[in-house]
Specification:
It contains 16 helices and no strands. By secondary structure, the protein is mostly helical. Helix 10 packs across helix 12 and helix 15 runs antiparallel to helix 16.
Length: 407
């Protein structure tokens, strides 16, 4: 492929993703849906202007790593402790119930292999913090009782989801369900427990000492991107997915975790804000390439839409995916029914986290065309419709006394 053609493709992807994201948000849907649809439009499914290439896949991989870095950076474990055991109950239930239900559906109702069933189940686990926070803010409920439970649960939900993703990636690479990948994953997590507080302290010290002295701009961005890519390389070296490296660097630099040595580290809010401020443009530059890439890899022409499998499977999976999160909210026995319902509904959107699962499963060879398309459709269902039904819920029940309790 000619270098000039690649430049044109990247320009079209970035501009198209931005425009589609703006339109999607104007219509009340998350921007990720617009970016996904741009990929479908530009790719082999429709116009055929852009086809996945090695360079685009590399840029998309960097986008995934940086996206997981941002997820880790915005993960506040202290928020989870502030909401007590309720957030933990919702988070664990919101991971176990959809994953188990989706696994049983794939394995026994549709007779899929063990690895495919696990990957589809894994794609239904994590909740999108970004979409959920935006919905709660739109309806003015982010500081409510149920809002605090949801945000606390979403923190643990993402952590568990990333760990499940890493383990499934190990199995897909090894083409076996064994313990070797789990041991590698646990080794990397152990290394993170030891090294990450030191990394955070050193990064903070270097930026604080030299940030106001150097005449070259961009010290924070250069240092953080280097750390993210280095930890991604370490993750790959121990057999874990590279994106796990980005996640743990973000978690370490958030300085909001409880680890060995971490108790002695006072949270540095100014440092974390500086990292977020200077890294945000870089993350926003690369992550749309990943979501557009998901759309590019989704060749809808290769799918037999006349086959009842795609429709029956996607509909059944959507019922399990939505019902599993709602059911997890109803595990809160000490809360009023409306609070439990609101918590479960707010946990439904998958968005970027689910798409990462699906794309990693496809690239690892675990998900074929029709299953991959059905999973992406379900993720789109949960992401597009969740904001609308939650707004309708609060429009009808928002004034009820059960939803007016202080957090």
């Amino acid at each position: 492929m000619e270098g000039a053609e690649v430049l044109l493709q990247i320009a079209i992807i970035l501009a198209g993703a931005r425009l589609a994201g703006e339109i999607a948000m104007h219509l009340g849907a998350p921007s990720v849906i617009g970016e996904l649809l741009v990929g479908v439009l530009l790719g082999p499914s429709q116009l055929g202007w852009i086809h996945p290439s090695e360079l685009l896949r590399l840029l998309a991989d960097i986008g995934i790593i940086l996206l997981l870095f941002q997820v880790g950076l915005e993960t506040n474990i202290r928020r989870l402790t502030e909401t007590g055991t309720e957030a933990g109950v919702v988070a664990v239930g919101g991971v176990v119930i959809p994953m188990l239900g989706s696994f049983l559906l794939c394995r026994y109702a549709f007779d899929m292999s063990l690895l495919i069933s696990l990957f589809v189940g894994g794609a239904m686990t994590a909740t999108s913090i970004g979409v959920t926070v935006r919905i709660l803010r739109d309806v003015g409920r982010d500081d409510s009782r149920e809002g605090q439970i949801v945000l606390g649960a979403a923190v643990l939900d993402d952590v568990l989801g990333v760990l499940v993703l890493a383990f499934l990636f190990q199995m897909s690479v090894a083409h076996d369900v064994g313990y070797g990948g789990l041991l590698n994953l646990l080794a990397f997590i152990g290394l993170f427990f030891i090294v990450s507080p030191i990394v955070a302290e050193l990064a903070s010290a270097v930026i604080s000492r030299y940030g106001h002295v150097t005449e070259l701009p961009g010290l924070v961005a250069t240092l953080i991107v280097s750390l993210v890519l280095f930890f991604a390389w370490i993750a790959h070296a121990v057999g874990a997915p590279e994106l796990l490296g980005g996640f743990v660097v973000g978690l370490a630099l958030s300085r909001q975790f409880f680890l060995p040595f971490g108790e002695k580290m006072a949270p540095d809010a100014a440092f974390t804000r500086q990292v977020r401020r200077e890294m945000r443009p870089i993350v926003q530059l690369f992550t749309p390439i990943f979501f557009v890439g998901v759309g590019l890899s989704l060749d809808l022409r290769m799918i037999n839409w006349d086959s009842p499998f795609v429709w029956l499977f996607s509909f059944s999976l959507a019922v399990v995916a939505i019902g599993g999160k709602v059911l997890a909210g109803h595990l809160l026995r000490g809360e009023p029914r409306l609070v439990r319902q609101a918590v479960g509904m707010a946990m439904v959107p998958r968005a970027e986290v689910g798409l990462i699962f699906a794309e990693l499963g496809r690239s690892a060879g675990a998900l074929d065309g029709e299953v991959y398309a059905a999973v992406v459709l379900v993720i789109a269902y949960t992401t597009v419709f969740a904001p609308f039904w939650l707004k309708l819920f609060y429009r009808r029940f928002g004034g009820h006394a059960a939803l007016s309790r202080p957090p």
